[in-house]
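Subject: mismatched residue count in predicted assembly?

I count 922 residues in my input, but I want to confirm that the predicted structure covers every chain. Input:
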Amino acid sequence: MEQGTIDYLINTVGSDFVITNSEQKLSYMYDEIEHNVRPKVNMDSIVVKPLNSKEISEIVKYAGENKIPIVVHGGGTGLCGGVSPIKESIVISMERMNKIVEIDEKNMMAVVEAGVTLAQLIEELEKHSGICFPVHPGDEGAQMGGMVATNAGGARAVKHGIMRNHIKGIEVVLPNGEILNLGGKLLKDNTGYNLLQLIMGSEGTLAIITKITFRLYPEDKFTASIVLAFENISDASNAVLEIMKNGVAPLAVEYQDRYLNVKSAEILGLHWPLDKGMADLLIILSEKSEEALYASCQIINNVCKKYNASKAVFAGTKKEQAEMLAIRSGSYEVIKENIAYSFDMAVPAGYMPDFLNDLWKLVDSYGTKSYITAHLADGNVHNDIYMVDGKNPEYLEELKMKMYKLCFKYGGTLTGEHGIGKLRIRDLTFQKSKAEIELMKSIKRVFDPNNILNPGTVLEM
Amino acid sequence: MEQGTIDYLINTVGSDFVITNSEQKLSYMYDEIEHNVRPKVNMDSIVVKPLNSKEISEIVKYAGENKIPIVVHGGGTGLCGGVSPIKESIVISMERMNKIVEIDEKNMMAVVEAGVTLAQLIEELEKHSGICFPVHPGDEGAQMGGMVATNAGGARAVKHGIMRNHIKGIEVVLPNGEILNLGGKLLKDNTGYNLLQLIMGSEGTLAIITKITFRLYPEDKFTASIVLAFENISDASNAVLEIMKNGVAPLAVEYQDRYLNVKSAEILGLHWPLDKGMADLLIILSEKSEEALYASCQIINNVCKKYNASKAVFAGTKKEQAEMLAIRSGSYEVIKENIAYSFDMAVPAGYMPDFLNDLWKLVDSYGTKSYITAHLADGNVHNDIYMVDGKNPEYLEELKMKMYKLCFKYGGTLTGEHGIGKLRIRDLTFQKSKAEIELMKSIKRVFDPNNILNPGTVLEM
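Triage response: the counts match. Full output below for your records.
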């Protein structure tokens, strides 16, 4: 990075908060994307840690005048390389913008700076009894700003939906440096085009999110986790459809191939309680009353029996529940080092049994495996193509395209929750029409005519 | 309208479906906006009734080439003049595009053409036991396309949220005539900028919505309506906040000044059951079980006693519930003829007691009244400035601005659900920054460079 820019940044945020040292910079260059598909980053990039929107505004103005790309780095928990600077960029780390501005119990809204992590928010909410924020993308190191920028989902989307449903206001810095407030503590607001909804999920390419206002909810008092073993994934997914149809709204419905659960438990030094069958379902319930919890359990039990679930384990204590969730979440560790390409496809939930069946056959025809973790009730599947002898298999691109085509055949999408980032820019063109991509590009030009915000993410301009 | 255009339209949709007769055209020129604030329409406009997206695409292409404005007419149940053609326009009535394409129980999704009315949808869903679509803006003559275009709310938004939360896919005709499909039967989809969310609420100015895919839900089996009388609106709104805080999620929480309920009942030949106090609350509950219904009723009862509710009437039968709702909805008839200006302000829900108190004082200082109907739990208020001796009062603009300023003081918005239409274009500039309006205008130009779609709605271009 040019010395003039370094000087300007030091002058703006203070020398303690500008990182030029390569080793120190490294942890800001990537998110949690698999090593094998990491974007090539430009290490001449510089990292700055502004304290507030005003400082960001000044940095953005400078960057605009000098046509220097800007990449915002949140918690770095993304999985598609969205935070990697592929050009020589100013990387803005939001870590110092970590103030919880307000927990407003009167309006059941919170206002936080974008750098507040999910862990921090949860800790703060524990001081206010009986109030919760429901979205949980798994890694609590995620920052709220990043969760808005990527419209995060996660396991609890079954009952509570995704970020989009809960965010009511944002403060953003536009690419021209202007600070703009959109929405507020309002439950209803129909004043013109909803720019808030447009910016949500735009992955740092339209504006820099600096502050967030979102809904809080009364916490359900009664929870339980149930783990069920099915013969196969078809039975498991049909059971889930019928459970939902019966009016049960679980907090989460997590499917995982037995192999992943057993291996993950091994790594964690825990015991996975199921052995019969090969397809495991973890259902987490949260209800307002014990009666409601019991009624939901009854329905689940009856439906799962019908689909030949061979064993159900109820986890009542917090410790048991946490262990099961840890095993589920730990499965990534089992396969992480061996991933050649990682998927986040989603199909209409009712098509899951057929889609997964076809997916299994397709993978099998290549003489390989592709273990499945799925938010089954949402139709969202995580699977992978693995490396062979530490290298990408020859069939990688071919199998990938066949998987996508299968997904599109079922009316699916190539990313249900992880987003496009730098990983799926080309993939996007397989799914979207030219007209839609052209509209997206034109909107990008409206917000960011110099293409300085996170170039090479979502769209190739 | 020029003969060439008339001929083209007759050629495209057939002579039976082109209306040139002034008397027949009249019912397509307005929505339900009060007579006093009706926009001035251009009666040289022509009405066409296309059968499908392809016909609409052809009409739009022709209109684009000839720079003729297009206004889409749905159910005509709007309240801000959105459907009125203020320039010589082609008015596209969606009434023939009324096919329910699919009730997909497997995916719990419905696909309908944009001209399907809410009444028609409800009737169809009754054939599929236990399935419902929750949004209900009051007038069942509303078409689904219009409900998407305006991001409709209504009484049931308390529990189920607004249209935006439930719509998963749309087919639109762009101003260049291209037919575009956005989203699908997907619960999660993070592929690029969410144009679906941008078009929702854009009031027919960005694209013509022709088909809609939306979620269906298992219907709650147990319902009850409770009517409560409070001394004043402050007590009523504080009670509502506490009820919600206690985890009760009513289907609807409708407030109405006693005067409106009594007069509305009179007009309908019904009896309003409350007499003590002056502030009436109608709470509608829907729950999965009788126990849950009873538990919610208990909480409501306890909280309302604390806030001195003097009488509670439980309506258990469908007939009783329908009567109460009819009286609530009929209140518009009481004041309709006398309205000089009609409001749809919303403030953060927790500020409602203070806001309503200040609003009452403000209105009182002008020696007038402004009866209130409110979706209390959503912070959404409907009130009016009345005519004096059949004319707009001198203080109209002054009082209106003071009401808005009061609303903004509480972090409010000038329209919670009704939208901007042609009624509030100037008002929008009081609330929104120049930067935000400029972004909206630029987005409008991206979609509709010739400004042919519903000119004079939302934005003055």
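Chain A is about 35% helix and 20% strand. Marking this ticket as 'not a bug'.
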